[in-house]
Amino acid sequence: MEATGLFSGLGEAFQKGGPWMIAIGIAFAISVGITLERAFRLFFVYPIKGDDFMKEIRNFVLRDDFEGAIQLCNGAKNTALSQVLRSGLERANRSDEQIQNAIDAKSLEMIPKLERRLPYLSLIANIATLLGLLGTISGLISSFKAVALADAVKRQQVLSDGISEAMFATALGLVTAIFTMIAHSILSGRATQILEQIDEFGVKLLDLLSTHRPGRTAQGGSTRGRNED
Questions:
Q1: Of 5, 62, 126, 165, which cross-links 139 as Cys (Cβ 3.0–4.6 Å)?
Q2: Do residues 24 and 168 lie in contact, with contact meaning Cβ atoms separated by under 8 Å?
Q3: Dihedral of CA 41/43/44/48: which sign?
């Protein structure tokens, strides 16, 4: 019964809210779709426990098992961090500069994947607010016309319909904008966290590889020297 009443109320709101409610409803549906897709990827696909993962990588490297470290990254290939670290491990026997370039290139490649479609949420929030404002203006115009043209019997009803259109459109526009702005803030923050994790453990991998390379002794002096400079 409660569900029936809810759907009945929503149907009545859309009917009274006028044509702008349809546009705002479409914007809300798109916002929800983008939010769910991005939340799934940013919270369940791309992230990984960086400390534990880096500890396993370090154990492989210290045993000179670079192939094992690469296979570990392949096993978590959908995560952002594993892809970046694998690019560095694949060039473990090269110079520090080449390793750094590989890590940087992969990191830059991951940025658009992590931030994909997030700018649309900000756009939708602004559009929903403006559509709600248009609905408000449209409803008020209808109300004023009713006062001027309708006869005394119908004037109150037409005035009420115009005000309802204005209020329902404003309400749905604001609800859509608020939801979308909150979703954008949370998802953008999550993407930033993953990027910061990539930067942190990319530097740690470079430091590890600069002191422990396949087939040769520690050569980390140049890297540490640059950091100290």
A1: 165
A2: no
A3: positive
Closest CA to 61 of 85, 78, 95: 85
**Residue 129 tokens, joined:** 């607010």
Token pair in block for residue 71 = 């296979």
pLDDT tens digits, residue range 91-134?
988 888 999 999 999 999 999 999 999 999 999 999 999 999 98
Neighbours of 111 (CB within 10 A): 14
Q: Which residues contact 98 (CB under 8 A, 6 or more apart)?
A: 91
Q: Which helix (H) or strand (E) holds 227?
A: helix 221-228
What is the distance between the alpha carbons of residues 93 and 89, in angstroms, rounded to a whole number? Answer: 8
For the chain, domain boundaries: 2-214
Percent of the chain past pLDDT 90, that is, above it, reads 57
Half-sphere exposure at residue 198, Cβ-oriented, CA atoms within 13 angstroms: 29
DSSP 104-121: HHHHHHHHHHHHTTHHHH
SS3 for 73-103 is HHHCCCCHHHHHHHHHHCCCCCCHHHHHHHH
d(CA 94, CA 151): 87
Q: What's the longest Cα–Cα distance across the chain?
A: 96
> pTM of the prediction?
0.81
Contacts of 19 (CB under 8 A, 6+ apart): none
